[in-house]
Write a structure and sequence with these properties.
- The chain is of the alpha/beta class.
- About 40% of the residues lie in helices and about 15% in strands.
- It is built from five helices and eight strands.
- Strands 1, 2, 3, 4, 5 and 6 form a six-stranded parallel sheet that branches. A two-stranded antiparallel sheet has the order 7-8.
- The longest helix is centred in the last third of the chain and has 37 residues.
- It starts with a strand and ends in a 5-residue tail after the last helix.
- The mean pLDDT is about 95.
């Protein structure tokens, strides 16, 4: 069963994207967790050089990402870009390798009709550069998010949006299962090749 780790690009307590994240996790069929990126220090390679011990929040984030089968990133868009706190978290993961080959879905929600399309595109590009496996069918841009959320429950209540989130998560789960099967097949093939005696 797929273990999903969610990352929010907003630290705001009553964030609309936080509501989207919580709603998505409730729709996911499998174990879930949410990463804490608010305590991360500003990215500084001097804190993470060869032989150095990374700061505790950085180590915790890397462990959480490494232990997940797939990632879900839900983020607002600020000034046509990715929120600094989220970009900072990704910067800490660039060189450590936890995102390599990891299936990931990117969802942005905005009060505007564009649905956070600039941030969505930037996140996908950054994750592809990090050699994460961006699952296009699982990515979404949600426009006019305000009335689609119940402020009392801080959950998405709009039926079409919930159905679309469920579809996106199903695509992510399928892609994750396929990636796992491909990795197992590759390992089996490599093991079989290793067992073949060398030709004299």
């Amino acid at each position: 069963m797929t273990r999903l780790l969610a990352v929010s690009g907003s630290l705001r307590a009553r964030s609309a994207n936080g509501a989207v994240l919580r709603s998505a996790l409730e729709l996911f069929d499998g174990p879930t967790a949410t990463a804490d990126i608010g305590a991360l220090p500003h990215f500084n390679p001097d804190l993470d050089g060869e032989g150095a011990t990374p700061p505790a929040p950085v180590a915790a984030l890397r462990t959480a990402v490494a232990g997940a089968d797939a990632l879900l990133i839900v983020s607002p868009e600020y000034a046509h870009g990715v929120p600094g706190v989220l970009k900072n978290a990704l910067d800490w993961l660039v060189s450590s390798g936890e995102c390599v080959g990891k299936p990931v879905a990117v969802i942005t929600a905005s009060p505007f009709p564009t649905g956070g399309d600039h941030a969505n595109a930037q996140l996908r590009e950054t994750l592809r550069m990090m050699t994460g496996k961006v699952v296009a069918d699982a990515c979404r841009e949600i426009p006019a998010i305000g009335p689609k959320i119940d402020p009392a429950t801080e959950r998405v209540t709009d039926g079409p949006t919930l159905a679309d989130l469920r579809t996106a998560l199903a695509h992510l789960a399928t892609a994750t299962a396929e990636a796992a099967e491909a990795a197992e097949a590759a390992e089996a093939a490599e093991a079989a090749t290793a067992d073949v005696p060398a030709t004299p």
